[in-house]
Amino acid sequence: VSAGVNGPAATDAITREVLHDRETRAVVAAANRRRVGQVVTRVLVLALFVGTWQALAARYDATLLPGPLAVYRALVRGSRVIADAAFATTVEIAIGFAIGAAAGVVLGAFLGQSRLAKRICHPFLVVYQAVPKTGFAPMIVLVLGFGLMPKVALAAMSSIFPVLENTIVGVQRVDEDTLRLFRGLGASPLQLFFKLRLISALPHITTGFRAGVILATVSVVVAEFVAGRIGLGAVMMVGTAQLDSALVFAALFVLTLIGLAYYFAALLFEMALLRWFNLAPPAA
Amino acid sequence: MTSRGRLHHERTEDELFQYFYERERSADGSRRRRELFATIVGRVALVFAFVATWWVASAIYPPILVPGPQATWQALIHESATIGRNVPATLVEIVLGFVAGSTLGIVFGALIAQSAWAEVVLRPFVVVSQAVPKIALAPILIILLGYGLAPKVAIAALIAFFPLLENTITGLRRVDPDSLRLLRSLGAGRWQIFVKLRVFSALPLVFAGLRIAAVLATLGAIVAEFVAGNKGLGALLVIALGTFSTPLMYATMVVLTALALVVYLAAQWLERKALGRYNLSIE
Questions:
Q1: For chain B, what is the radius of gyration of the CA atoms?
Q2: What ipTM did this prediction achieve?
Q3: Mean predicted lDDT score pLDDT of chain B
Q4: Is B42 within 8 Å of A263 when comparing Cβ atoms?
């Protein structure tokens, strides 16, 4: 009896296995093909961009639009100036963003906790959000001089807002059931804050970090435009004044790399932190 | 709870209810009044603290570095003609840049969102473009377009473009799958799905993008005037910095803040109006 039952069942299992295997392989192959197609298309889009740039540069004067090759040569020629400037810009962004982000988290946690404080500050926050912080660059330069400080101050001023806003939202959006559980187990307000609210706000806070680090980069460059002595913004202003467009493009290229490096560093930090605390990224 | 016979009992219950209801309502009202009072006091105190800090700073620093509130007010009145002459230029740059940048962002976003494949292929470029400090293109655009109105509008448009590009793509692609299935099963075509579902589900994100773009267009116009300007509030700020006319700089900043706030509130008003009309909301 057992052999009669086993026979067809075994062949059935094998066919199913084989079919499943074949299907899996087909699906994986299709996915691979699609991925290769995407990468190839992306490379083509990039090549199209550089090609259009080179073609346009060939038509216009080198002062107006230097081509990729001219920019590369300027990068090599001015490598020492650009390296020094890039170092200054990198440091300014790092310090300014660190100050702004820390202040944003602390202030946001406070405002998210107290309904009254949030209500009092609301109109001021709206004004602060609407005003282009970089407009304050000349005022800050007057007080803090032409060195590192005004850039750091402006970077902190611009990067504080997205962190602040996201922290307020994150601290307030806590799972009701977990909150009740914490209260039921007799958690103190301090424990409630550090072990529940702050942790569950982390996905929002790191989203704010990502927006903040971009703003810090932008405002450091603008401060360097206004108080041009150090940094890539200053190099760009000198290049503009001397009509050395290739140098301007070279500085812009390095600046873009710095901006991207900071952005992806923030992204990696976010991913690592969320994995460590086993949290999901915020919806939308 | 009670039988029909005991009317007086019901009445007392009614009265009890009325009594507690009134008491709770008055407690609620007085709490709200107290909260409102605290809010107003807090806001006034904050404004006061701000002005006091400014005043103390102006007492510590020489007036050429930090003029006090009073000196700023006087500059605002005396130099109102100079400042007023520079407002239209900046406003025109902001509005033109905002309209051009956001329109192009919506159009290109809608085109890219037509194809899931195009969206996937272009996604890394869209993400990277967000992280690139576009404002740094200002000197290059000025070399290309000269010192007139064009480069300022171009920069404002350029940085207003990207939030709308990303938000339009995301909004159009992320539709409720159930609604999509329903429309498909009812035999809706591509165009009908786009017009009747995708556009509406994209609206909240598009308007959020418009609000961000309004702030960014202001920023772009000001920075472009910093870099190369003979007209506009940003140019006035830099000229005041060069000639150490600090009170004029502070007065200009006050006007600029007001201008930026008006632009932002206009965008916000439009957002509320449009979303309210179609009964939509963000999240």
A1: 28
A2: 0.80
A3: 87
A4: no
